[in-house]
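Loading example: each entry is read as two labelled lines plus one structure line.
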Amino acid sequence: MRMGVLGTGMVGRTIASKLVALGHEVTMGSRTADNEAARAWAAEAGAGASHGTFADAAQGVELVFNCTAGSGSLEALRAAGAENLAGKTLIDVANPLDFSHGMPPSLLVSGTDSLGEQIQREFQDAKVVKALNTMNCEVMVDPARVPGEHDVFISGNDHGAKAQVRELLESFGWPAGSVIDLGDITTARGSEGHLLLWLRLWGVLGTGDFNIKVVS
Amino acid sequence: MRMGVLGTGMVGRTIASKLVALGHEVTMGSRTADNEAARAWAAEAGAGASHGTFADAAQGVELVFNCTAGSGSLEALRAAGAENLAGKTLIDVANPLDFSHGMPPSLLVSGTDSLGEQIQREFQDAKVVKALNTMNCEVMVDPARVPGEHDVFISGNDHGAKAQVRELLESFGWPAGSVIDLGDITTARGSEGHLLLWLRLWGVLGTGDFNIKVVS
């Protein structure tokens, strides 16, 4: 499948590489057409990998990942173009992290709103699915890094898009039973809020190779 | 041990009953000396159970549980009296839930502050330990309701107080390895933030008999 990955940071590169390894054609998008990180990634990732602007990464693809920093996601998506996102599954991996109050970061929105909802409100024709935002990027694409059972959460309004994301997550190595559908896009408040605990656990555990399992 | 439980709601009654069952002398405190729920609880809980005002429940005890609604916790603690809380371990079980925006609730403070910190800042001589606020009250006092391994988080500035809380949690049935010390009281932002995910999981699972296990 042709896919676009917005963002050239560690999360974007890790997800884009996994998608290429799975046989997808991936365009990594950034603010400028000549982003050095995107160029280096495409050269290294090899066949199926290309790079360009945010709009280049959203045009002509079937599915788009938002892996930009949460504080810049809306602007990046505007650059990608609402018309290029319309009708497509938009997997929002970003968290609205606020580094202005020091470390660990807090959240730019929390409780009464979420980045996932902000994106869905502004890009009404995109099918936004919040997913994978509750863990380190290495764990996102290789859940077996963390031993035993643990879970990934999805939130979104479109059932077809969520089914597509489930399938993609399974191709990443997530067992079907580990994908927990929290509900519509407002439930992104839950997975984004959990980041506050994730950040503290990261501090205690000293590694990003962890996750949570919901036990009931 | 003599203990005070502030709050007459389900959380307060459940914890107070467990403490009495474990052989502690427990005074349940409320705004007024003649609170009907507190009176009924004390009559039913039997030997070792008494009730009174918030101040009655904090005076002459060794340890105090804050089980009041988060939106009213500071006021309840003021009524209990800073002088009665000084030098004591104050286990803060409350969450700063904000029901003014509808259901599920959001948080009155989040990310850059927490109820646990607000309490510690105002009652500087109390040894505040945030604990048990990431689960239903039945699970707090009977972790075996949820099968398998799952965790409870503690946050606080005083190591002695946290050791005391660990011991108390073990007496509730929590295995030593399931108590995760997140760090100082600012880490209460983590466990309180997780509530946003807990609320959504509650909606999906349709039961409060669940918890999370940190897997690494």
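The first strand of chain A starts at residue 2 and ends at 6.
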